[in-house]
């Protein structure tokens, strides 16, 4: 957001605040006069401009600051000064003027000295400088500068410096630009590091946001044209607007992630609309066409963009205030960082207008400094956020460990209860039947009229024992899973329960045709869940009909068991209800819901993710 906010603020300040007289002190004491003539036809030649000068159509430009705002005209600036021995240079302190022509007038004749601008290669500049610098002819009493930025917003502070002063300024700017760029690049690397460490999108958006902001600064200061795209005639005039618009799109994305806006919130939806509109604007900016052909339309679009963007910025600011009132600390950090930047932007802008006095450093590097401070503040906020989430993650891990421990304790307890029940069954049923069989066999061995009857009774008991042992074996380890597969094992279990005649069970199995690809433990646990639900119905529900469904889906499987038994009131059920089943469902990271009413039966619905999958959140 701040990238475009800078552009918006520039436009409003430069078009709304008049430049104040600011007459610099010159060491040579020479009198300089700046005059300006507006060529609304945009077709005047240098001879016609010189004629306009001689006929008095030029007006004084005091202070020497060309600031018409959005314009459709071309401007001719005349510089009157006596011949000088020292080499002087005129600086037009704006890196984004499309076309400039520089002339020296001697004996009424204008000689062309340079043709440059961001519609021309950077090497065409008469002096290698990020803005525009034009050497004066020492013996020429008059110089003319043609300034063409038609259908755009034009601001051009003009000043005369010596060659040494220009060299000193260039060295100082190179040093400070390098230092401040290095700081921002370190912040970018920090964001990339956090993103690679955590894989959280907020840090990736932050790195991209800061890098794009650096692109805007380089474009605004002319560094991009100097070092990155020096031969382009297409991008220099669009670079600031392109970076600013892209920064709005990226900035809103980062802001939403940074302050934790819900994707479905009203604020986020409105911001998404802004992003779409800015995306369309960015495409129009980068569209490879000569926008001067559509000059009036292009200027209308450019002048309306700041108004629309200001509305969007005010909305975002209101959203930030709303989030701050809700106790959103990152929103407060972001707002403070943005306000710090705006202070520096406003001060530097007013300095260039001659409205305030600033130390030399802040006068030329105020915006750069403001951006660095903004990024540092946000970086501290991100570092605090990273530390907070790290502690939160540790707390979650501790909680998961406690839950896993509780789950393990539950499984151990349930297994102990099952072993005890199995021991009781072996002792009470198998033991008593074996003792009775032994008595029958002993009586048959002693002989007697009932010998055949005793042998037949012993044989029947042995068959019962065999069947009981088979059932116990299935309860311990469903051998049928290993031999015939999960579906066959479940069908066999239901068939055994149906054969008792106590309940009628209907079984529906869908999917699991490739069940061999699932781990054995996964299949065994599903089998146990269905087995325990069925046993619970037979023992407690007093049901006559049961429906069991096992359905394989794309990401999960569902188990639905429904009976027409006595049911129960869930509000009165204890926490231990189907504890063993719940433990197994939790072990497989599934969900379990029980729906029951007294005398209306019970329906248990279980959803379990397939191996390697996870369940989506329920809404």
Describe this structure in words.
This protein has helices spanning 2-16, 46-54, 163-198, 201-221, 223-227, 236-259, 266-286, 295-325, 329-352, 360-445, 451-476, 479-484, 486-499, 520-541, 579-587, and strands at 33-39, 59-60, 65-71, 74-80, 88-92, 99-106, 109-116, 132-135, 142-148, 152-162, 504-510, 545-552, 556-563, 591-596, 602-609. It has 619 residues and is an alpha+beta fold. The protein folds into three domains: 18-167, Sandwich (Immunoglobulin-like); 172-398, Up-down Bundle (Rhopdopsin 7-helix transmembrane proteins); 484-619, Histidine kinase-like ATPase, C-terminal domain (Heat Shock Protein 90). It is rod-shaped. The two termini are 33 Å apart.
Supply database-style keywords.
alpha+beta; Immunoglobulin-like; 15 helices; Heat Shock Protein 90; five-stranded mixed β-sheet; 3 domains; 619 residues; Rhopdopsin 7-helix transmembrane proteins
